[in-house]
């Protein structure tokens, strides 16, 4: 009878069988070195920006960025004031929250139809919604600009009388571009739900809408949470369509605040680092708040047999 050592399982001490030292294969050592090096390369710029965001610009100019000292919180206060962060944070919330809610709601409806009903146009419908993600935004820049400029709306809806230069323009564009990706992900997720649930619901007389609202949506909570984190990150950081569709400076999202911290002939990179940290904080808060659901939504598909 031969004794073997299972990798990762610590052998019992004090027995008759001597402990065999576990040797790490060379390939795994190379993998560990590569992963550690890649992690350091990825984390270094972030940690360096956070480190310098707490340092006084005069101290770093006198002693160099490789020095240690000159710590202060003034950069955050100055960045908040100069970048008008309060106003632009509010703009980002107005744009991001409705866009994410609408994209997930519409995408879940499309995904429910595609996943639960065998219509002939299911594949074409899903392809139509996904096609928007395949087009580069630059290709739609001029048509969308002219379209939004030509659509007249009441002045209580937009002070310009058109969709141009209004929050609604960004909400519509972000919702339209993100719905296809969300529908594609949610349809694949809903297909993994047991069909017996819906058969039992039909026997109990549950309508199609209640099957969607009371059965499907609660079961899709991990996938919805994962998509919500991704969508909040993408829409919150979006700046391209804001520069195209907005003309009033006080309506721009938070990403424009960083541009306000740059001077024409001089840039305080410590101040800019503090502003970057402030911009990134809401996304980090959302991620850690939904971390459990986010990881569950990403790994569930990998555990399906």
UniProtKB/TrEMBL annotation:
Region annotated Disordered, chain positions: 1-20
Domain ABC transmembrane type-1: 89-290
Tagged with keyword Cell cycle: no
A Gene Ontology cellular-component term: plasma membrane
Alphabetical GO biological process terms: transmembrane transport
Entry's localization field: Cell membrane
Species this chain originates from: Kineococcus radiotolerans (strain ATCC BAA-149 / DSM 14245 / SRS30216)
Homology family: Belongs to the binding-protein-dependent transport system permease family.
Protein name (Swiss-Prot/TrEMBL): Binding-protein-dependent transport systems inner membrane component
Organism superkingdom: Bacteria
Regions that span the bilayer: 29-51, 89-114, 121-147, 167-186, 269-290
Pfam families: BPD_transp_1
Keywords: Cell membrane, Membrane, Transmembrane, Transmembrane helix, Transport
Membrane topology category: Multi-pass membrane protein
Coiled coil, from the record: none
């Amino acid at each position: 009878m031969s004794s073997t050592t299972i990798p990762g399982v610590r052998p019992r001490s004090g027995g008759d069988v001597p402990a065999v030292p576990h040797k790490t294969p060379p390939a795994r050592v190379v993998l560990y070195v590569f992963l550690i090096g890649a992690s350091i390369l990825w984390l270094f710029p972030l940690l360096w920006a956070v480190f310098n965001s707490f340092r006084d610009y005069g101290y770093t100019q006198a002693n160099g960025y490789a020095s240690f000292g000159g710590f202060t919180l003034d950069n955050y206060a100055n960045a908040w004031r100069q970048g008008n962060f309060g106003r632009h944070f509010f703009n980002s919330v107005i744009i991001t929250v409705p866009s994410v809610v609408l994209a997930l709601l519409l995408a879940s409806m499309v995904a429910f139809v595609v996943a639960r009903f065998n219509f002939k146009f299911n594949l074409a419908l899903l392809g139509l919604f996904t096609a928007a993600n395949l087009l580069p935004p630059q290709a739609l820049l001029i048509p969308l600009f002219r379209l939004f400029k030509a659509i007249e709306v009441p002045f209580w809806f937009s002070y310009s009388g058109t969709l141009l230069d209004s929050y609604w323009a960004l909400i519509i564009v972000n919702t339209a571009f993100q719905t296809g990706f969300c529908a594609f992900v949610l349809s694949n997720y809903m297909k993994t739900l047991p069909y017996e649930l819906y058969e039992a619901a039909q026997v109990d007389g549950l309508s199609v809408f209640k099957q969607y609202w009371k059965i499907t949506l609660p079961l899709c909570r991990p996938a919805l949470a994962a998509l919500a984190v991704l969508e909040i990150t993408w829409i919150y950081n979006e700046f391209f369509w804001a520069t195209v569709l907005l003309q009033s400076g006080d309506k721009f999202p938070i990403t424009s605040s960083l541009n306000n911290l740059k001077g024409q002939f001089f840039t305080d990179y410590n101040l800019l680092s503090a502003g970057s940290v402030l911009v990134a904080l809401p996304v980090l808060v959302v991620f850690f708040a939904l971390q459990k659901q986010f990881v569950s939504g990403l790994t569930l598909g990998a555990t399906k047999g």
